[in-house]
Amino acid sequence: MRILVFGILVIALSWSCKNESEEKCAYIPDTSSISVDIDISQLQDSVVVFSSKQDLVDFFSRHTVMRDVFFNRSAYPSDSMFINELYNRFSNPYFDSLLLETKIVFGDLSSLRNELNTAFKNFRYYYPEVEMPKVETVITGLETDVFVSDSLVIIGLDYFLGDGAKYRPNMYDYILRRYEKDFVVPSIMLLYGIDSRYNKTNLEDRTVLADMISYGKTYYFAKQMLPCVPDSILIGYTREEIEGSRRNSDLIWKRLVEDEVFYATSHLVKQKYIAERPKTLEVGEKCPGRIATWVGWEIVKKYAEVSNESLPEVMANPDAKAIFNKSRYKPL
């Protein structure tokens, strides 16, 4: 593995320096004339009060997407095995504790509803034709986190109980830190932002650059929906990591250029610079994982600035190379 030792040392030192700069909000559109009232169907209380398996069958008959997608009905060999497993899960005393923790963290969901209303008002500002989805919340026993379609959003609240929760998803800490209360609505907007209905891509372009720009457009989209949510939350970095990335953008850029990352198509290169990893060690020991997706976000922001295109225009451009070239992004 070819490593620029001096570059790593510089980044390791400078990443830990304190940065007092405050992050600014993105453009905040005037949505005063836009009326949005997201309806949340709170189903978390329902799953702990089934008195029979037939009650559970009836519940899933009314919520078929939740049954088939959120609880993954197809993973079970038969309906009876599926219902038996879920009924036993929901009847377990720990589920009452899980529900109580959920109520402590999320309360009556008024805060979540306000965040959703804000995000979807901005969504309708940029895409006036978008239909408001129905939103359902539930606790699953840590089965699934979020599902998004054009007409329905399902939120597994128990995935987002945070560091103090008794029960947490079984995953690495650097991923687990994204499962906090403040990440729910950003997670939803990121799923909309990567959706091919909005984020147009050239499926024949298999370069790292194409992935960088696709992810960059996803983060850019979510930021416009939630203008004052910190970048660190949207991309799942710590504050130190996002500030370190900004300070060391020139060194990150140099590494991507020297390793000929942009037009590479190999799985190995994508694993190093785009895939989930705690660190991008090829850049530096404190450089966060997925660093090329952060660079893609910076490129997209620069492209939007120099092109003066609207959000829908930026998202509709499938040509990653053209976005890259026109942005003329190159950190000093």
Write the layout of secondary structure elements.
Blueprint: H1 5-14, E1 40-42, H2 53-62, H3 64-70, H4 79-91, H5 93-106, H6 110-126, E2 134-138, E3 146-148, E4 152-156, H7 173-176, H8 184-194, H9 208-225, H10 231-235, H11 239-247, H12 249-258, H13 267-273, H14 291-307, H15 311-316, H16 320-327
Parallel strand pairs: 1-2, 2-4
Antiparallel strand pairs: 3-4
Helix pairs in contact: 8-9, 9-14, 9-16, 14-16
N-to-C series of helices and strands: HEHHHHHEEEHHHHHHHHHH
Largest sheet: 4 strands, mixed
Round the mean pLDDT to the nearest integer and report it. 93
The radius of gyration over CA amounts to 22 Å
Question: What amount of the residues lies in strands?
Answer: under 5%
Widest beta sheet: strand line-up: 1-2-4-3
Find the structural class using helix and strand composition: mainly alpha
Instruction: Give the overall shape, derived from the CA principal axes.
Output: globular
**Structure annotation, total helices:** 16
Number of domains: 2
Poorly predicted ranges: 1-20
First-residue to last-residue Cα separation? 26 Å
Total E-strand runs = 4
